[in-house]
Amino acid sequence: METDGLLEGCVPFPPEFAERYRRKGYWKGRTLDAWFDEWTARFGERIAVVSDGERVTYAELARRVDRVAHSLAALGLRPRDRVLMQLNNVPEFLYVTFALLKVGALPVMALPAHREAEISHLLAFSEAVAYCAPARLRGFDYVEMVRGIRPCAPDLQHVLVTGDAPPGTVSIDAMIRGASGAAPRTFDGRRPASSDVALFMVSGGTTGLPKLIPRTHDEYAYVVDIAAETADLGPESVFLIVLPISHNFSFAAPGALGVLSRGATLVLAPSPNPEAAFPLIERERVTNTATVPAVLIQWLASPLRERHDLSSLKVIQVGGSRLNAEVAQRVKPLLGATVQQVYGMAEGLNNLTRVDDPEEVILNTQGRPLSPDDEFMVIGDDGRAVAPGERGELVTRGPYTIRGYYKAPEYNATGFTPDGFYKTGDLVRVTRSGNFSVEGRVKDLINRGGEKISAEEVENAVLRHPAVQNVAVVAMPHPVLGEAVCAYVIARPGAPLTLEALRAFLDRAGIARFKVPERIEIVERFPLTSVGKISKQGLRADITARLRAEGEAT
Length: 554
Ligand code: OOB
Description:
Layout (H helix, E strand, L loop, with lengths): L14 H9 L8 H12 L3 E5 L2 E4 H18 L6 E4 L5 H13 L2 E4 L6 H11 L3 E5 L1 E2 L2 E2 H8 L8 E5 L7 E2 H5 L20 E6 L9 E5 H14 L7 E4 L6 H5 L2 H7 L3 E4 L5 H11 L3 E4 L1 H9 L13 E5 L5 H11 L2 E8 L2 E5 L6 H6 L3 E2 L5 E5 L12 E6 L11 H7 L6 E9 L5 E6 L3 E4 L2 E4 H9 L4 E11 L3 E10 L7 H10 L10 E4 L13 H18 L1
Parallel strand pairs: 1-13, 3-4, 3-5, 4-10, 5-8, 8-9, 12-13, 12-14, 14-15, 15-16, 26-27
Antiparallel strand pairs: 1-2, 6-7, 10-11, 16-17, 17-18, 19-20, 20-21, 21-22, 23-24, 25-26
The structure holds 5'-O-[(R)-(benzoyloxy)(hydroxy)phosphoryl]adenosine.
């Protein structure tokens, strides 16, 4: 029996669109877990995942996923239960994710860097019944964190951990070994329909706290399939995951799902540093990977490049933030691989340059949409399409772009056009070759090396500091990350504030480290726009000028 309709709180595709996407064969009417079963049956003895020296075949992957799924069902997980996922790049991420899909429960993809502030919001907002994380990672105790925020998460019943499971938590390792005591059982509850939500991505957010992005089986499977096609993945491909696997780029553009759909091999790196990534590329003869520009710059600059054989690399996808053409140009000579620019978003639309595009396109543009039915417009301030080649905001709809965020009717009313186009908040230009050039944005966020930070969210946290009268958070230029966080603060009279004090305060408040300002400027007043709002443009110009002057001074 299938679940009825779409999960409450989600915005459906209008029937005429859904019908078209099915008729054209984009939506195949199959759930992700059913598709997973096809892969594992077909690719049985091939190597699916390599991690920390362990090699797991597709057949073994299927067995482990089954064991975890039985254990999850025995714990009482039901279809449509939400489960917050905060695992790092370990195979357990795949076991639990596919097991949840089998049970019909819905993973919510948080990032390992999220802390109390984000996790308590995500647990509460998604009404998660379970939370899944490493017990400890890089000196941070996730179990202790979740204990502290339990009062904010009334629905939370189970904490599932990798590594040594402290009392009161459930060991994922025991589930995998089939030692959790779970009796084999079929998942006899209602089965998800392919048109229903499969999982939630988390938005970087432009307003306050992160929003949830519901992705359905049909449309997610479609974009994974065409992304794998466009990235030219085949059974011989070896794909290295260096960015967090729960991010849409690593997971589905084509990412882990695309790799497994082709019978290829996934290699999981614990970190994107050259020290971790290069030996894996050499040992596993990695052919493909996906990075953000900040990581790529690090790779290009690393002396370790000379000490490892990276000649197996064929394609390096680069996305998440704007890649500078000068950097792009050094990739082929120094790393021997072709760049594939990826301009994507967790909300849907994926744009890629194609590996056989002319060099000019590969170096200078962020690619073009994947599906023939991706529709887009580039609009001006008046909401109308700009002249061809002019800059404007990109709005889009199509067979794998959401029609609304989860339980966010007010935001959805402004975040989408009346005819269902998602407003990306990105300023783009369509080049003569028909590709996008991403040239800025209208949304108020900072893109720190691909990590999206809502200015408003950081401002709200800074405002709680007793020495702060008012604050405006803006992006400042950064040579490697592209952008970093700068806070302009009007301090309360007689209350001095240092960067160190502010950072310590925000750490204690439990906001993710990557969002904490790297610089503060104490000012008397903010520049204002003609309508009297704080001029963020003015502040960005100010910090850019200050940094330039300091650079010249040294
Ligand atoms: C990816 O997804 P998100 O959801 O973390 O961030 C989306 C935003 C875009 O709206 C744009 O502002 C920016 O990130 N962005 C880029 C870019 N790729 C993403 N800006 C300039 N150049 C690029 N190549 O970041 C994401 C999702 C799937 C695949 C790749 C990236």
